[in-house]
Amino acid sequence: MITVLVGDNSFEIERETARIVSEFDGVAERIDGSELELRNLPDLLMSGTLFADKRLVIIKNLSENKSVWPDFGDWLVRVSDDITLVLVEAKPDKRTSTYKALQKQAAVSEFTTWTDRDEGLAVKWVANEAKRMGLELDTKSVQMVVRRVGFDQWNLIHALEKLQLAGAVTPELIEEIIDAEPSENVFNLLDASLKGDREKVATMLKTLELTEDPYRLFGLLSGQAFQLAAVTVAGPSDQVAKDLGVHPYAVSKLQTAAKKLGRAGTRKIIAEFAKTDDDMKLSRADPWLLIERTLLAIAT
Question: What pLDDT band is residue 235 in, cutting at 50, 70 and 90?
Fold first, then answer.
């Protein structure tokens, strides 16, 4: 049997690999495919060993091996029936003859990382994982975890492990021990600015300055400003979320500000961001000072 696990979702691939290993009665052989040589293939794919008739062979990153991958498709028909072969590939070239051969002769499963569009899936997954871990989380708490952590499953499972050690879970506890992802921090920062809370803006910037890159932060802020402009022009519409490639919840959070600002207010904000973008490109001042100036200007 030949199985191919493809994709950039390393969490799901690791979990699926672990499931295959747990169901195999023996010791899995793990091979670094990038270092494999053609002369190794007969022993690896066509025979048992002195210690076991059945074998589980897991090969990672074989597509990176330019001397083996082009010819590997010809070896698929030679794989012994006593061997379970698992190929793990993050980004194989799907145009190659080897990959096309695998699609015909192997069980191919693809695992992609989640995006904003997958918030519902992430919420359901976190709820199920929490239940599996014996962790009592209501729907509101589950949604809060996802919105603070984001959609990376490694980060989500680590967050649940923290909560598991903490005892009874409350919204206050989640805020205290689960670090918010950058996009959540950015929205809260822009939201504070839009509400005119200059003190909160200054406090949040001092905290973010300890861990964030100012240029990355400004890029995320600019993205939020662009979404705000889109919502202002389009009004309340699910199509905006589809066009921007974000979850409707993210758009709904901007609708109140968009309604209050109107087109004139939004144009002012976009103008501030454009000015700051030019100033940062020309290094006219410290980037953190430029970011603070922009947010305080919006807050007036």
Answer: low
